[in-house]
Amino acid sequence: MRPGPTPGRTPSSRAAASSRVAGPSEAVAASDWEAAVAAVRGAGLDDEVQLICHVNPDGDALGSMLGFALGLRRLGFTRLRATFPGEFDVPEPYRALPGIDLLVPEQQAYASPALTLIFDVAAESRLGGLASLLDGGSRVVVLDHHASNTGFGDVALVDPGAAATSVVADELLSRLGVPLDAEIAECLYVALTTDTGSFKFVRSPSVHTLAARLIATGISPAAIARRTFDTRPFGAMKLAGEVLGRALLDPAAAGGRGLVWTYATTADLERHGQRPYVLDSLIDPVRGVAEADVAVLVKELVPGEWAVSLRSKGGVDVSAVATALGGGGHRLAAGFTAYGTPDDVIAEIRPLLDAHLT
Protein backbone atom coordinates (compact mmCIF):
# COMPACT_ATOMS: atom_id res chain seq x y z
CA MET A 1 0.00 0.00 0.00
CA ARG A 2 1.31 3.42 -0.89
CA PRO A 3 0.74 6.40 1.37
CA GLY A 4 -1.89 8.88 0.29
CA PRO A 5 -2.49 12.44 1.41
CA THR A 6 -3.75 13.19 4.88
CA PRO A 7 -7.57 13.09 4.86
CA GLY A 8 -9.11 16.44 4.11
CA ARG A 9 -5.97 17.85 2.53
CA THR A 10 -4.75 17.19 -1.00
CA PRO A 11 -1.12 17.44 -2.03
CA SER A 12 -1.93 19.95 -4.73
CA SER A 13 -3.93 22.27 -2.49
CA ARG A 14 -1.38 22.29 0.32
CA ALA A 15 1.54 22.72 -2.06
CA ALA A 16 -0.25 25.66 -3.62
CA ALA A 17 -0.81 27.18 -0.20
CA SER A 18 2.87 26.76 0.65
CA SER A 19 3.88 28.31 -2.66
CA ARG A 20 1.73 31.38 -1.93
CA VAL A 21 3.53 31.76 1.40
CA ALA A 22 7.15 31.28 0.47
CA GLY A 23 7.36 29.68 -2.96
CA PRO A 24 9.67 26.82 -3.91
CA SER A 25 13.00 28.04 -5.17
CA GLU A 26 13.74 27.83 -8.87
CA ALA A 27 17.05 26.27 -7.83
CA VAL A 28 15.16 22.97 -7.54
CA ALA A 29 13.59 21.80 -10.81
CA ALA A 30 9.92 20.85 -10.82
CA SER A 31 10.93 17.41 -12.06
CA ASP A 32 13.11 16.91 -8.97
CA TRP A 33 10.24 17.80 -6.63
CA GLU A 34 8.06 15.35 -8.54
CA ALA A 35 10.73 12.65 -8.36
CA ALA A 36 11.09 13.15 -4.59
CA VAL A 37 7.34 12.87 -4.05
CA ALA A 38 7.27 9.75 -6.22
CA ALA A 39 10.14 8.22 -4.23
CA VAL A 40 8.28 8.68 -0.95
CA ARG A 41 4.97 7.50 -2.34
CA GLY A 42 6.70 4.56 -3.97
CA ALA A 43 7.61 3.15 -0.58
CA GLY A 44 5.09 1.00 1.25
CA LEU A 45 3.81 2.07 4.64
CA ASP A 46 5.45 -1.00 6.18
CA ASP A 47 8.74 -0.61 4.30
CA GLU A 48 11.89 0.36 6.17
CA VAL A 49 12.66 4.08 5.81
CA GLN A 50 16.00 5.45 7.01
CA LEU A 51 16.60 9.15 7.67
CA ILE A 52 20.17 10.44 8.07
CA CYS A 53 21.79 13.78 8.88
CA HIS A 54 25.44 14.77 9.09
CA VAL A 55 28.08 13.91 11.67
CA ASN A 56 28.08 16.17 14.77
CA PRO A 57 24.51 17.27 13.98
CA ASP A 58 23.35 20.82 14.62
CA GLY A 59 19.83 22.19 15.03
CA ASP A 60 19.06 22.33 11.32
CA ALA A 61 20.24 18.79 10.68
CA LEU A 62 18.31 17.25 13.59
CA GLY A 63 15.27 19.53 13.35
CA SER A 64 14.79 19.03 9.61
CA MET A 65 15.28 15.27 9.87
CA LEU A 66 12.99 14.70 12.86
CA GLY A 67 10.34 17.12 11.58
CA PHE A 68 10.24 15.25 8.29
CA ALA A 69 10.16 11.89 10.08
CA LEU A 70 7.12 13.03 12.04
CA GLY A 71 5.51 14.02 8.75
CA LEU A 72 6.11 10.51 7.40
CA ARG A 73 4.60 9.10 10.58
CA ARG A 74 1.49 11.19 9.93
CA LEU A 75 1.29 9.68 6.46
CA GLY A 76 1.16 6.24 8.07
CA PHE A 77 4.73 4.97 7.75
CA THR A 78 5.41 2.52 10.56
CA ARG A 79 9.09 1.59 10.22
CA LEU A 80 11.08 4.80 10.58
CA ARG A 81 14.58 5.28 11.98
CA ALA A 82 16.66 8.42 12.13
CA THR A 83 20.40 8.54 12.79
CA PHE A 84 23.71 10.28 12.15
CA PRO A 85 27.29 8.96 11.80
CA GLY A 86 29.82 8.92 14.60
CA GLU A 87 29.39 8.98 18.35
CA PHE A 88 25.73 8.90 19.38
CA ASP A 89 25.81 12.14 21.36
CA VAL A 90 22.79 14.39 20.92
CA PRO A 91 23.52 17.96 22.07
CA GLU A 92 21.54 18.85 25.18
CA PRO A 93 19.50 21.69 23.58
CA TYR A 94 18.00 19.21 21.09
CA ARG A 95 17.20 16.30 23.39
CA ALA A 96 13.64 17.54 23.92
CA LEU A 97 12.82 17.70 20.21
CA PRO A 98 9.63 15.90 19.20
CA GLY A 99 10.41 12.69 17.34
CA ILE A 100 13.57 12.05 19.37
CA ASP A 101 12.25 8.52 19.98
CA LEU A 102 12.99 7.78 16.32
CA LEU A 103 16.69 8.50 16.77
CA VAL A 104 19.05 5.51 17.00
CA PRO A 105 22.84 5.02 16.90
CA GLU A 106 24.23 4.41 13.43
CA GLN A 107 24.83 0.75 14.31
CA GLN A 108 21.05 0.33 14.52
CA ALA A 109 20.31 1.94 11.16
CA TYR A 110 18.41 -0.21 8.68
CA ALA A 111 20.89 -2.13 6.55
CA SER A 112 18.72 -2.27 3.41
CA PRO A 113 15.95 0.33 3.64
CA ALA A 114 13.52 0.81 0.79
CA LEU A 115 13.96 4.58 1.06
CA THR A 116 16.77 6.72 2.46
CA LEU A 117 16.33 10.45 3.11
CA ILE A 118 19.43 12.55 3.82
CA PHE A 119 19.29 15.98 5.47
CA ASP A 120 21.72 18.91 5.55
CA VAL A 121 24.59 16.86 4.10
CA ALA A 122 26.67 18.53 1.39
CA ALA A 123 28.91 15.58 0.51
CA GLU A 124 29.05 11.83 0.98
CA SER A 125 32.10 12.23 3.20
CA ARG A 126 29.85 13.74 5.88
CA LEU A 127 27.97 10.44 6.12
CA GLY A 128 30.83 8.38 7.51
CA GLY A 129 30.08 4.66 7.46
CA LEU A 130 26.45 5.35 6.56
CA ALA A 131 27.57 6.26 3.04
CA SER A 132 27.40 2.52 2.27
CA LEU A 133 23.61 2.91 2.02
CA LEU A 134 24.14 4.89 -1.17
CA ASP A 135 25.54 1.79 -2.86
CA GLY A 136 22.63 -0.50 -1.97
CA GLY A 137 19.19 -0.83 -3.46
CA SER A 138 17.68 2.01 -1.44
CA ARG A 139 16.13 4.96 -3.23
CA VAL A 140 18.08 8.00 -1.94
CA VAL A 141 16.60 11.50 -1.65
CA VAL A 142 18.86 14.36 -0.48
CA LEU A 143 17.45 17.54 1.09
CA ASP A 144 20.02 20.32 1.53
CA HIS A 145 20.76 24.03 1.17
CA HIS A 146 24.56 24.12 0.82
CA ALA A 147 25.89 25.63 -2.39
CA SER A 148 28.82 23.22 -2.15
CA ASN A 149 26.56 20.15 -2.34
CA THR A 150 28.08 17.58 -4.69
CA GLY A 151 24.75 16.39 -6.09
CA PHE A 152 24.89 12.84 -4.76
CA GLY A 153 21.83 10.62 -4.33
CA ASP A 154 19.09 9.57 -6.75
CA VAL A 155 17.13 12.78 -6.22
CA ALA A 156 18.84 15.95 -4.96
CA LEU A 157 16.64 18.73 -3.60
CA VAL A 158 19.39 21.30 -3.11
CA ASP A 159 18.38 24.95 -2.72
CA PRO A 160 21.37 27.21 -1.94
CA GLY A 161 18.96 30.10 -1.54
CA ALA A 162 17.09 28.45 1.31
CA ALA A 163 17.85 29.80 4.77
CA ALA A 164 17.95 26.28 6.20
CA THR A 165 17.39 22.70 5.14
CA SER A 166 14.11 22.90 7.06
CA VAL A 167 12.79 25.19 4.30
CA VAL A 168 13.34 22.39 1.80
CA ALA A 169 11.83 19.83 4.20
CA ASP A 170 8.74 21.99 4.68
CA GLU A 171 8.24 22.30 0.93
CA LEU A 172 8.47 18.55 0.39
CA LEU A 173 6.05 17.91 3.26
CA SER A 174 3.71 20.36 1.54
CA ARG A 175 3.89 18.45 -1.70
CA LEU A 176 3.20 15.21 0.15
CA GLY A 177 0.04 16.68 1.65
CA VAL A 178 1.22 16.68 5.26
CA PRO A 179 -0.36 19.52 7.27
CA LEU A 180 1.72 21.17 9.94
CA ASP A 181 1.12 20.26 13.56
CA ALA A 182 2.88 21.61 16.66
CA GLU A 183 5.40 18.75 16.83
CA ILE A 184 6.51 19.03 13.21
CA ALA A 185 6.54 22.82 13.53
CA GLU A 186 8.74 22.78 16.63
CA CYS A 187 11.36 20.70 14.86
CA LEU A 188 11.34 22.90 11.76
CA TYR A 189 11.38 26.08 13.85
CA VAL A 190 14.43 24.93 15.84
CA ALA A 191 16.12 24.15 12.53
CA LEU A 192 15.21 27.53 11.07
CA THR A 193 16.28 29.60 14.06
CA THR A 194 19.59 27.83 14.61
CA ASP A 195 20.73 28.12 10.99
CA THR A 196 19.72 31.78 10.67
CA GLY A 197 21.24 32.93 13.97
CA SER A 198 17.76 33.65 15.33
CA PHE A 199 16.92 35.36 12.02
CA LYS A 200 19.89 37.77 12.20
CA PHE A 201 21.43 36.57 8.94
CA VAL A 202 18.46 36.52 6.56
CA ARG A 203 16.72 39.24 4.59
CA SER A 204 14.03 37.24 2.82
CA PRO A 205 10.48 37.98 4.01
CA SER A 206 9.57 34.39 3.12
CA VAL A 207 11.70 33.11 6.02
CA HIS A 208 9.71 35.17 8.50
CA THR A 209 6.47 34.11 6.83
CA LEU A 210 7.46 30.47 7.27
CA ALA A 211 8.30 31.18 10.92
CA ALA A 212 4.85 32.72 11.36
CA ARG A 213 3.20 29.60 9.93
CA LEU A 214 5.19 27.42 12.32
CA ILE A 215 4.34 29.61 15.32
CA ALA A 216 0.67 29.56 14.35
CA THR A 217 0.55 25.85 15.26
CA GLY A 218 0.89 26.82 18.92
CA ILE A 219 4.60 26.40 19.59
CA SER A 220 6.35 28.80 22.00
CA PRO A 221 9.26 30.71 20.43
CA ALA A 222 10.31 31.98 23.88
CA ALA A 223 10.52 28.48 25.37
CA ILE A 224 12.36 27.16 22.33
CA ALA A 225 14.85 30.05 22.39
CA ARG A 226 15.47 29.62 26.10
CA ARG A 227 16.17 25.90 25.72
CA THR A 228 18.16 26.19 22.48
CA PHE A 229 20.20 29.36 22.94
CA ASP A 230 20.00 30.61 26.51
CA THR A 231 20.61 27.58 28.71
CA ARG A 232 24.15 26.32 29.28
CA PRO A 233 25.95 24.67 32.22
CA PHE A 234 28.07 26.87 34.49
CA GLY A 235 31.16 24.99 33.32
CA ALA A 236 30.37 25.99 29.74
CA MET A 237 30.44 29.64 30.74
CA LYS A 238 33.83 29.21 32.40
CA LEU A 239 35.12 27.36 29.33
CA ALA A 240 33.87 30.14 27.05
CA GLY A 241 35.80 32.72 29.03
CA GLU A 242 38.98 30.72 28.66
CA VAL A 243 38.59 30.10 24.93
CA LEU A 244 37.63 33.71 24.15
CA GLY A 245 40.49 34.94 26.30
CA ARG A 246 43.04 33.36 23.97
CA ALA A 247 41.58 34.93 20.81
CA LEU A 248 44.05 36.63 18.45
CA LEU A 249 43.42 39.52 16.07
CA ASP A 250 45.24 39.80 12.72
CA PRO A 251 44.16 43.16 11.23
CA ALA A 252 46.27 42.74 8.07
CA ALA A 253 44.61 39.48 7.01
CA ALA A 254 41.87 39.25 4.36
CA GLY A 255 43.21 42.19 2.38
CA GLY A 256 43.31 44.36 5.48
CA ARG A 257 39.75 43.55 6.47
CA GLY A 258 40.95 41.57 9.46
CA LEU A 259 40.86 38.08 10.92
CA VAL A 260 40.07 37.09 14.50
CA TRP A 261 40.47 33.50 15.66
CA THR A 262 40.66 31.22 18.64
CA TYR A 263 40.73 27.52 19.42
CA ALA A 264 39.47 24.96 21.91
CA THR A 265 40.97 21.59 22.77
CA THR A 266 39.59 18.35 24.11
CA ALA A 267 41.63 19.06 27.24
CA ASP A 268 39.64 22.29 27.68
CA LEU A 269 36.41 20.30 27.57
CA GLU A 270 37.68 17.72 30.03
CA ARG A 271 38.97 20.35 32.44
CA HIS A 272 35.57 22.01 32.62
CA GLY A 273 33.56 18.79 32.40
CA GLN A 274 31.80 19.80 29.18
CA ARG A 275 30.63 18.13 25.98
CA PRO A 276 31.68 19.33 22.51
CA TYR A 277 28.35 20.93 21.61
CA VAL A 278 28.95 23.82 24.05
CA LEU A 279 31.71 25.09 21.75
CA ASP A 280 29.43 25.58 18.75
CA SER A 281 27.96 28.88 19.94
CA LEU A 282 31.39 30.45 20.61
CA ILE A 283 31.78 31.47 16.99
CA ASP A 284 29.14 34.18 17.58
CA PRO A 285 31.07 36.37 20.06
CA VAL A 286 34.21 35.86 17.96
CA ARG A 287 32.29 36.99 14.88
CA GLY A 288 31.24 40.15 16.73
CA VAL A 289 34.75 41.63 16.86
CA ALA A 290 34.52 45.02 15.14
CA GLU A 291 38.07 45.01 13.74
CA ALA A 292 37.72 41.77 11.74
CA ASP A 293 35.59 40.70 8.81
CA VAL A 294 36.51 37.01 9.20
CA ALA A 295 36.13 34.95 12.37
CA VAL A 296 37.52 31.43 12.83
CA LEU A 297 36.92 28.91 15.61
CA VAL A 298 39.18 25.83 15.61
CA LYS A 299 37.77 22.94 17.69
CA GLU A 300 39.81 19.82 18.45
CA LEU A 301 38.03 16.54 17.66
CA VAL A 302 40.89 14.18 18.55
CA PRO A 303 44.59 14.99 18.98
CA GLY A 304 45.79 16.61 15.78
CA GLU A 305 42.35 16.79 14.10
CA TRP A 306 40.20 19.92 14.15
CA ALA A 307 36.72 21.03 13.09
CA VAL A 308 37.07 24.56 11.72
CA SER A 309 34.19 27.07 11.60
CA LEU A 310 34.56 30.17 9.42
CA ARG A 311 32.32 33.25 9.38
CA SER A 312 32.45 36.44 7.32
CA LYS A 313 30.59 39.74 7.51
CA GLY A 314 30.63 39.94 3.72
CA GLY A 315 34.17 40.80 2.76
CA VAL A 316 35.29 37.22 2.08
CA ASP A 317 33.58 34.21 0.53
CA VAL A 318 34.41 31.70 3.26
CA SER A 319 32.58 28.94 1.38
CA ALA A 320 35.26 29.13 -1.32
CA VAL A 321 37.94 29.04 1.37
CA ALA A 322 36.40 25.97 3.02
CA THR A 323 35.86 24.20 -0.30
CA ALA A 324 39.51 24.69 -1.21
CA LEU A 325 40.39 22.93 2.05
CA GLY A 326 38.01 20.00 1.56
CA GLY A 327 34.92 21.41 3.25
CA GLY A 328 32.03 23.60 2.20
CA GLY A 329 29.15 25.75 3.32
CA HIS A 330 27.79 29.19 2.49
CA ARG A 331 29.37 32.49 1.48
CA LEU A 332 29.18 33.87 5.02
CA ALA A 333 29.38 30.62 7.02
CA ALA A 334 31.39 27.51 6.21
CA GLY A 335 33.64 24.85 7.68
CA PHE A 336 36.14 22.08 7.06
CA THR A 337 38.27 19.47 8.85
CA ALA A 338 41.96 20.22 9.37
CA TYR A 339 45.05 18.55 10.83
CA GLY A 340 48.11 19.67 12.72
CA THR A 341 48.14 22.51 15.25
CA PRO A 342 45.85 25.56 15.44
CA ASP A 343 48.69 27.65 14.04
CA ASP A 344 48.97 25.21 11.12
CA VAL A 345 45.25 25.60 10.43
CA ILE A 346 45.40 29.40 10.38
CA ALA A 347 48.49 29.26 8.15
CA GLU A 348 46.41 27.32 5.60
CA ILE A 349 43.47 29.69 5.84
CA ARG A 350 45.22 33.06 5.75
CA PRO A 351 46.40 33.16 2.08
CA LEU A 352 43.04 31.85 0.90
CA LEU A 353 41.25 34.79 2.51
CA ASP A 354 43.11 37.18 0.19
CA ALA A 355 42.24 34.97 -2.78
CA HIS A 356 38.50 35.07 -2.09
CA LEU A 357 37.72 38.68 -1.28
CA THR A 358 34.27 39.82 -2.40
Helix-strand blueprint:
Blueprint: H1 11-21, H2 30-41, E1 48-53, H3 59-75, E2 79-83, E3 115-119, E4 139-144, E5 155-158, H4 165-175, H5 182-195, H6 205-215, H7 221-228, H8 234-245, E6 248-250, H9 253-256, E7 259-264, H10 266-272, H11 283-287, E8 294-302, E9 305-312, H12 318-324, E10 328-329, E11 333-339, H13 342-355
Parallel strand pairs: 1-2, 1-3, 3-4, 4-5, 7-8
Antiparallel strand pairs: 6-7, 8-9, 9-11, 10-11
Helix pairs in contact: 1-4, 3-4, 3-5, 4-5, 5-6, 5-7, 12-13
Architecture overview:
There is one protein chain. The chain is globular. The longest helix is centred in the N-terminal third of the chain and has 17 residues, at 59-75. The protein has 13 helices and 11 strands. The model is unreliable at 1-23 (pLDDT under 50). It folds into 2 domains: 11-228, inorganic pyrophosphatase (n-terminal core) (Alpha-Beta Complex); 236-355, Diaminopimelate Epimerase, Chain A, domain 1, CATH 3.10.310. It has helices at 11-21, 30-41, 59-75, 165-175, 182-195, 205-215, 221-228, 234-245, 253-256, 266-272, 283-287, 318-324, 342-355; strands at 48-53, 79-83, 115-119, 139-144, 155-158, 248-250, 259-264, 294-302, 305-312, 328-329, 333-339. Helix 12 packs across helix 13. The protein is α/β, with parallel strands linked by helices and 358 residues long.
